[in-house]
Amino acid sequence: MDQTSQKPQEQQTGSRLSHASPPLQWALLFALSASVVVLLELASVPAPLLIGPMLAGIVIGVSGTTVRVPTPAFGLAQGVIGCLIANSVSADILGLFYASWPLILGAVVATLAASGFLGWLISRLRILPGTTALWGSAPGAAAVMVLMAGSFGADQRLVAVMQYLRVIIISISASLIAGLWIDTTRIDVPDIIWFPPLQTGLLITLAVAIGGASLGKMLRLPSPFFLGAMFIGMALHLGTGLEFDLPPWLLGMSYAMIGWHIGLGFTRPALHHAMRALPQILGSIAALLIFCAGLGWLMSRMLGIDPMTAYLATSPGAMETIAIIAAATDKVDLSFVMAMQTSRFMIVLLIGPPIARLFARRMVT
Fold it and tell me: Quick check: pTM over 0.85?
């Protein structure tokens, strides 16, 4: 009797939306995503084109939707992000890393050790599973960490909550501190041309995104769509000087696909679990932020580096926002900041997979 009474209740959850036609469900998702993106833009929240669709996807997902992002579209979106990362790596950064590698490597290792400890602690306290806590705490490009997490058994939804909460908090705190240190009123935000004239470089970008994804699957790379495109893109960018054409509309669509993929995967139990863990997640973000700020202060005192340069260089994540703030004044050494940020990102990509496998084995044993 109990089992039969429970079935209708389970079917009623989100039944209205699940019975709607797929075109109507997509229309609702588009409309809600656009509304949230506008609100986030007005509030100056970072990464609105990814966070907005993700939040809209969560709302639609827990309401019982049946639509999902097609795998080819999600794979192409990852490939485009791989080309974006490849564009950001320059020979100048590699040269600066070679000249200052002991300093950069020491700071990167210290930051990774701190984030790894926080991930282990969150896992140890059974707040989140081991690999989820590890990737959620990893300091790197948030979208990339979420994509990589899915290849190692981590819950992408919870990783996304951890990563993007940190992006928002660190971006706001860095902007506030920069406002006290430098004159941010001189920052000129360029007008975005969403639909520039089509260039042949766009075809090259799409070819690398698709070809890299295929190669990544053949080589059985973790997160093959992203890493395959990124590795091919870096080889072409550094070897031939190729600049990938990434018009805003293409990046916006790619961010939206990734955001929808994450958000639509949420269920009511998963959302409740994320909300229960929210205080501990916020505590871990604050701890990592304080540690990195202390590391920046120590670097500044011991090596005579400008304090703002040291702070931005050691900031754990939100690389795009950090680059904008660093470029706003001549007082900050932009090359050093980006060398630190890029080096940490690349090291996380290299050592993240084996550490995740080690975490997974230890959780099993």
Answer: no
